[in-house]
Amino acid sequence: MVERKIFAGPKVRRIRNGLAVTQTAMAEALGISPSYLNLIERNQRPLTVQLLLKLASVYKVDLEELQSEPGNNLAQLREVFADPLLSGELPGDQELVEVAEAAPNAASGVVKLYRAYREQAMRLSDLTVLMAGEGQAPAAGARLPADEVRDVLERRSAYFGALEEAAEAFFVTLPAGERAQVLKDWLQKERGIGVRILPVHVMPDLRRRFDRHSMRLFISERLAAADQLQEIAIEVSTLALRDAIARELETLSLSTQEARRIVRFELARYAALALMMPYDAFLSAAKASRYDIDILCARFGCSFGQAATRLTMLQRPANAGVPFFVMEVDAAGHRLRRAGAAGFPHARFGGGCPKLNIHAAFLQPGQVLAEAAEMPDGSTYLTIARTLDGPHAPFGERVRRTALLLGCEIALKDSTAYGQALSATPPPVAIGPACRLCERKGCLARAEPPVTRPLGLDEMVAGLSAFDFQ
């Protein structure tokens, strides 16, 4: 009888290592010398039928596994090396056969890495098509003016020192009294502009409109009192602080006139908040109330969103408050604005995690939610979230509701009234910068697979997430 010669040394070695058995012990169990087993494992001697039967008897080895060809790994490796990037690397299949046979685990790793590379390339291709539109590649560096403004303002401090000083200098010239009336009187006396609140049917689509012919500023009655005050303050800032706004505008690197126009309006909004909540008085009140936003709203006649935004601006070098950052989103998750005491923390915090309490706030309108949120790198933040209602809506029209998140480093929580709420709550919520960048496994809130990992396309396993990955 002619024995079939089978060279399966790497498989025998894997079996032995998996059982944590030495060559000497295995050789003794198989009735051969350790040196002969060493030659078998190095594919310098074949496995005879007798040895196969002995392996199956002693170690319960599947004979088909030992005799099988490296077909699956070999086919997958052929696919990998058929890629144009690698097609010229090998003259034939012999080396692939050797890799698949001698190092099947390494071969599987190469296949997984290649699949991840292909998946990433497909995602980038889809993104390019989406951004290009109509099959035309976007021009390098092309951005909409609004996107340019957003990038510039989000990455710098929310504090504009020259504008703060100009607002303070102007504020001290105003008489004491109810803030809205004082600003109306200034407009009338200094610029001959009257302020009138118009009903919805007269001005249904605008918040504010200045009529140069009649010299009147029209404000929509759909706005709450705090929002009406802000619109009046914006008009005052545009007129009284024009030079300061222009100086701050020159410090920003903007590429188009449209971007400059948008930033000019944003700076006017900033100045309006500075007039409504003067720096020193507001910071003193914030520290005294331990940054309780509702108390600040009552004291300064402002809205929750206005007070929270103003807190991010309190970063005067000689007299700074807690370095907060702020983010606002709508119910669909669209980002409306982001800002911070030192710029919005894109890299460390991200703000795109669906587990943040800013999204849970929509389920409890008007309630302030405070919790700790921990990033994968261990950095932890105090997050305060609440919904904001837009202009009053007539019957039959849906209210515009957004949610705002105010955050700071967890080390500063005891400086705030909201830090006390964390002592009786569960551990910090485990969040990530965004689903596409987060590698937390088993996340029930995951909405997208991470771009850094291949999808776990294993028919035998299903994870908790809708997008399993390896």
TrEMBL record:
One of its GO terms (molecular function) is DNA binding. Residues 12-66 form the HTH cro/C1-type domain. One of its GO terms (cellular component) is cytosol. It holds the Pfam family Peptidase_M78. Keywords: DNA-binding, Transcription, Transcription regulation. It comes from the Bacteria. InterPro entries: Cro/C1-type_HTH, HTH_RamB, IrrE_HExxH, Lambda_DNA-bd_dom_sf, ScfR_C, TransReg_Diox_bact_type. PANTHER family: HTH-TYPE TRANSCRIPTIONAL REGULATOR (PTHR46797), HTH-TYPE TRANSCRIPTIONAL REGULATOR SUTR (PTHR46797:SF23). Belongs to the short-chain fatty acyl-CoA assimilation regulator (ScfR) family. This is HTH cro/C1-type domain-containing protein. It comes from Rhizobium azibense.
